[in-house]
Amino acid sequence: MSSTTKELVVPIEELRSFVVRSMVAVGTKEDHARDLAELLVSADYRGHYSHGLNRLDMYISEIKEGMTTSGDNEPTILKETVATALVDGNNVLGPVVGKYCIDLAIKKAKDAGIGFVTAKGSNHFGIAGWYSIRAMKQGMLGMAFTNTSPMMVPTRAKERTLGTNPLTLAAQGNHGDEFVLDMATTSVALGKLEMQDRKGEPIPPGWAVDQDGKETRDAKNFHGLLPLGGVEQSSGYKGYGLAMMVEIFCGILSGSSFGPNVRTWKDFDRAANLVDGASEVLVPGDPERKHMELCDNLGGIPYHPNQITYANELAKYFKITPMKLLK
Amino acid sequence: MSSTTKELVVPIEELRSFVVRSMVAVGTKEDHARDLAELLVSADYRGHYSHGLNRLDMYISEIKEGMTTSGDNEPTILKETVATALVDGNNVLGPVVGKYCIDLAIKKAKDAGIGFVTAKGSNHFGIAGWYSIRAMKQGMLGMAFTNTSPMMVPTRAKERTLGTNPLTLAAQGNHGDEFVLDMATTSVALGKLEMQDRKGEPIPPGWAVDQDGKETRDAKNFHGLLPLGGVEQSSGYKGYGLAMMVEIFCGILSGSSFGPNVRTWKDFDRAANLVDGASEVLVPGDPERKHMELCDNLGGIPYHPNQITYANELAKYFKITPMKLLK
């Protein structure tokens, strides 16, 4: 958003105070409300309006509808080593859990050189970058990840199976410079697609798929987001792989819930998930497993004859015994 | 490669032995040669032929031309904590350094819950997945990263500035299942593009740029690879950001060299690097810094009037004092 005469300006302290009084009004503890306020203010200040004041009603609803605890709960450590911890958020506001976890990771990193904390029983934690920046401000490389509700349709699939699953890295540069990567592992955020539709423009290539898992340029046919990289030909499976990495760090490692279709891993193989005419849905590592099975069946590794000729020339040149072939 | 009658099969033990005798013939210590052999065999076995026997001549050249030490050098630890270490590879073969580092990280992870090791003075270390799988086989989540020589043209730039900079995560699943993400942060590997050219087919969208930094479909005009995500509209800046993440972990954190145009960071801003007609080249975090400067100048955060109306309605509903605007 650029500053035009139509826009109104809210002082930062006033915005913070408004979020706190709104959350306290629905029963949130004041220190929890302050944690949330800090995060929403930061999002708007950094220009990520979708994750700032715009999200306040979502957090209010979470509390009002009992999805998030507004009582005396606090996050607790279930298990830890000098450098790692498993935290139970005990269903308090996501930003309260997130702040607790990044502060614990920072403390561990100061002691051990690195800290890695994963949480279950948490809720929507806002912009991921807030957490990585918090660690960066302590002179560290800060990272954060979160899985989210399903929105991404994996390569060759047609169901929304993984979230937008963002990852972030913040690193201080020289002379006050900063590197703050904060990205969803889908090709774009849903908001970008909505804006495209509002402008009456077609969806650009690589953004979205329809009910059949086929790339669509028409917002009316939108069913899910493509992973970063778009369709298979432009390596969408890499974004899909990154999203699964985030699920592993956040959902699986913490023992909390993750996208319903990811739950059993093998669900990807179900016929109902397959795009018509496409080959099977894969997870990273599957093609290599197939090749290793082939090698095992053959009793060795198959090579193109040119590769063997090359090896033989090498052997001749260095007076080395050449490779013996199986057949 | 599928197994056809044209292909020749080499038993795995024979392949391993051939690599060892080739490397020993040019002066490599036998245990170092064994480390390399292990890696090349694994690449071919997993079906990544580009990184197996196919690369043997490159390692031989490294030794012969004195780029890599063939003497008595071994990697050494320069600095360490219970969970982290900085290693000097002392210019031995990349796979020797890589194996040393992942084994050190595994040992630290056993002690501290997580281990993170970065190395300088190393060389081409082969497929990244070999290292993550090695940790996975110890019951861990394994990760590995490496920066490489420049091949990726960042979003809005026209010079090759970053490498293909791969990252990998390996995680054991139930019932012998595995998740092995092993991906370059460019949209595709160079080899894929060469194969497309050999088939006489145009380069698919999102793969490559020409000398002017513009997307090209013609292999004759190939200048560099696009980052994962392709052009800016399909979020290529995310792949570019991931490649920089890898540079930070491998080049900057270890104090070793990294892509010459990355070295001073601000090089991106030089006019010579800009695509004609495009706006400035950015690093992750730059747009947010601009927005924060805007807020600082305004004395608060600018909002669309509808956002303020929404906040006022919220305040009214919960009987909260509404936000005071700056203007």
Automatic annotation (TrEMBL), chains A, B:
InterPro entries: Mal/L-sulf/L-lact_DH-like_ah, Mal/L-sulf/L-lact_DH-like_NADP, Mal/L-sulfo/L-lacto_DH-like_sf, Malate/L-lactate_DH-like
Keyword annotations from UniProtKB, A to Z: Oxidoreductase
Superkingdom classification of source: Eukaryota
Family affiliation: Belongs to the LDH2/MDH2 oxidoreductase family.
Protein name: Malate dehydrogenase
UniProt source species: Tegillarca granosa (Malaysian cockle)
Source species taxonomy: Eukaryota, Metazoa, Spiralia, Lophotrochozoa, Mollusca
